[in-house]
Specification:
about 425 residues, about 15% strand, five-stranded mixed sheet, Beta-Lactamase
Length: about 425
């Protein structure tokens, strides 16, 4: 039988699920023990006590009125008017054994008219004898266990006590898992937080594996950065000399070659930007609206048809400002390269930050959007490559920046302009 219908009602956090796993057996055990105890105490024990008292009541009824037997058995006997007899058997709703007492007494006496337990300290029996009503009164403790609720209170108290102790112990066991999750999440966002493996053997093994993985990735990033720094220095120098040499020539044939050198420098910058990644520096509180507004103004000064159409939300977000700037500039450059204009919007909510860039270009077909964000991919059928020169790293860099901030890049169709709609979505 499938239990998928139960999934929406289950807690999502590990602490809540652990508490649920802990409480269900304890509550179930308490209920079972309480029911068994109630059956034994309020049924079997009460039956035995009523049986003993019934014999004494029968003796009192068989003796004439005023007999010393009544005093010896501590059962008060007296005649009362019929009006004092209750209309029906009664007992308090919270009297757990009241129904058992009445049922058993009626089983022993066929002529028993009424039983009253409302006083909760005495049992009052009413019989029709010798043309009148006879009332017998005796102590309630003779037919019911004394303070039966104490056992239930003890069960509840120790059940709660053991639940609290177990919760504290389980919380201590789950804390290393939470710390590991926080360290992994921070590393995924490009932040390095101190972490030391602790906890149970399995959790400690997972923590040590995470530390080894993090150290290996950090070494690879460091080695890649050092290598690219050397490559950047080695390539920039000859390109700069070649550009200067061509700039000094007045020959018309030198102009195309000079443009080729500038294109090579721009391509080199793209390679280095992609290889450096988006994990440089630590995130700092940044006002996204102010940052995007400045980026749009810079693009407008560069004679690009870019407009900020929406800026909504207040507050700051932990961002690497330079990386976000690089990503948004890449989207704007792509938009004005493959279209005639671009519109930018930034919206902040309590849970997320969304930066959107739309253009009126040819867009990207839905079946090609996954390939578009892959490095070194150029979609000639979808985008007019004659309008610009590139190697297919623009969207890859944007995706890398978004993921480094714990977000993602979404590509779609612009409902406003009809071209590409690119969203950078980052959780706050």
């Amino acid at each position: 039988m499938s239990l998928r219908w139960l999934k929406p009602y289950l807690p999502r956090s590990l602490y809540a699920r652990a508490v649920l796993i802990l409480l269900l057996p304890v509550i179930t055990l308490l209920l079972v023990v309480s029911l068994v105890f109630a059956q034994r105490l309020f049924d079997d024990v009460t039956q035995q006590m009523v049986k003993t008292v019934a014999r004494e009541v029968r003796l009192v009824l068989d003796e004439p009125e005023g007999s010393p037997v009544s005093e010896m058995l501590e059962i008060e006997r007296r005649r009362v008017p019929a009006s004092e007899m209750p209309e029906a058997d009664d007992y308090d709703w919270f009297d757990l054994s009241g129904s058992v007492v009445i049922r058993e007494l009626r089983g022993y006496f066929e002529d028993l008219e009424r039983v009253s337990l409302t006083d909760n300290q005495f049992v009052m029996l009413y019989f029709h004898r010798d043309g009148g009503v006879v009332e017998l009164v005796f102590d309630r403790r003779r037919v019911s266990a004394r303070r039966p609720y104490q056992v239930l209170l003890n069960l509840a108290f120790y059940g709660i006590l053991m639940t609290v102790v177990s919760y504290v112990y389980m919380r201590k066991q789950l804390k290393p898992i939470t710390r590991l999750a926080e360290a992994a999440e921070a590393f995924g966002r490009g932040r390095h937080v101190p972490y030391r493996a602790s906890g149970a053997l399995e959790v400690r093994a997972a923590g040590n594996a995470f530390l080894d993985m993090r150290a290996r990735l950090e070494r690879q990033i460091e080695q890649r950065t050092l290598m690219l720094s050397g490559v950047s220095h080695d390539l920039r120098t000859p390109l700069t000399r070649l550009r200067l040499s061509l700039a000094m020539l007045e020959d018309e044939e030198a102009a195309p070659m000079l443009r080729d050198v500038r294109d090579m420098e721009r391509l080199l910058e793209g390679f280095l930007a992609f290889a450096r990644g988006a994990h440089e520096g630590e995130p700092e509180p940044v006002d996204p609206i102010a940052l995007v507004t400045q980026i749009v103004e810079d693009a407008q000064r560069a004679q690009n048809d870019v407009t900020l159409v929406e800026a909504r939300g207040v507050g700051t977000v932990a961002l690497r400002a330079e990386n976000i700037r690089r990503a948004v500039e890449n989207l704007i450059n792509n938009a004005v390269r493959y279209g005639s204009r671009a519109e930018v919007s930034v919206v902040m909510t309590e849970k997320s930050l969304r930066i959107r860039v739309e253009d009126d270009g040819p867009g990207i077909p839905p079946d090609s959007r996954d390939d578009a964000i892959k490095p070194f991919t150029r979609l000639e059928p979808a985008r007019n490559q004659n309008r610009g020169m590139g190697v297919g790293l623009g969207l890859s860099i944007v995706l890398d920046v978004a993921r480094a901030h714990g977000g993602t890049l979404r590509l779609g169709e612009s409902a406003r302009l009809g071209g590409l709609c690119a969203d950078i979505v980052i959780a706050r």
